[in-house]
UniProtKB/TrEMBL annotation:
<feature type="domain" description="Integrase zinc-binding">
    <location>
        <begin position="173"/>
        <end position="228"/>
    </location>
</feature>
<dbReference type="InterPro" id="IPR041588">
    <property type="entry name" value="Integrase_H2C2"/>
</dbReference>
<protein>
    <recommendedName>
        <fullName>Integrase zinc-binding domain-containing protein</fullName>
    </recommendedName>
</protein>
<dbReference type="Pfam" id="PF17921">
    <property type="entry name" value="Integrase_H2C2"/>
</dbReference>
């Protein structure tokens, strides 16, 4: 009954003056603790992943192109998270610039992992240490933060920038292995170590590059398969030749 009266006429205190209305028990002033909770919840909602949280592990990828493209998409996502809504960009087709940024990012991370002390020295304007593998390469850090070699070819201004200042890649790093494998695969597993090294040096300088390429060739399943097929064909021909010789020998005897 009371509920029906409330439904039709509203609460009784509305018939009286505002002075007799019940006081609002909810405080308009947010306490320090409540403010902390609100800020914490807001921070959680718009939390931007740090570089360590989203960084991809190159050893989990089977190809350099795939790693580069996935990283490019992730970089777009992270940049959008860090931008205001009106400045966010989202395109399904990656631009050359976005792919190049992803490549530079991946290379920078690999170089930091392998040559952090040397990069620190270079940034401070010092020479790299006497025991460093970079000491003969005249290394420099470019405006994108990428470590590059500046040898004799750097003096020839007519050459492309990447040939004059090839990107230095560390030996045995997962990223280096992916890049070397790309060159090996692009050559259809058919050319020798020197050819791959020459093509590679048009853009990169791999520490102990020849050994890195040989390791790639020795571990390549496609190459192993091709070699085993060639071996089988040689053995089959050899067996046929031996059989023919033995038959001829038996007739002559
Ligand atoms: Zn191969």
């Amino acid at each position: 009954m009371i509920e029906e009266e409330n439904w039709q006429n509203g609460p009784k205190f509305l018939c009286d003056g505002p002075d007799s209305w019940p006081k609002n028990k909810v405080s308009d002033v947010v306490g320090e603790d409540q403010r902390k909770v609100v800020v914490s919840m807001m921070t959680q909602k718009v939390k931007v992943p740090s570089d360590d949280e989203w960084r991809l592990e190159p050893s989990r990828f089977s190809s350099w192109e795939r790693l580069r493209r996935v990283t490019a998409y992730l970089l777009c996502f992270v940049n959008n998270c860090r931008s205001e809504t009106k400045n966010r960009e989202c395109s399904k087709i990656l631009t050359n610039e976005e792919i190049r940024d992803a490549e530079n990012y991946l290379v920078r991370v690999a170089q930091e992992e392998a040559f952090s002390r040397d990069i620190g020295d270079i940034r401070k304007g010092r020479f790299v240490g006497q025991s460093s593998v970079l000491k003969t390469l005249m290394p420099r850090v470019d405006e994108d933060g990428v470590l590059r070699m500046s040898g004799r070819l750097s003096l020839i201004e007519t050459l492309p920038y990447d040939v004059r200042f090839p990107v230095i890649l560390p030996r045995k790093h997962a990223l280096t292995k992916l890049i070397v494998r790309k060159y090996h695969t692009d050559a259809n597993h058919a050319v020798g170590t020197n050819h791959i090294l020459t093509k590679l040096n048009e853009k990169y300088w791999v520490i102990h590059g020849r050994e890195e390429i040989r390791e790639c060739e020795n571990n390549c399943n496609q190459c192993k398969l091709m070699k085993s097929k060639v071996g089988e064909q040689v053995m089959t021909r050899l067996r046929r030749t031996l059989c023919n010789h033995s038959r001829q020998g038996s007739y002559e005897g």
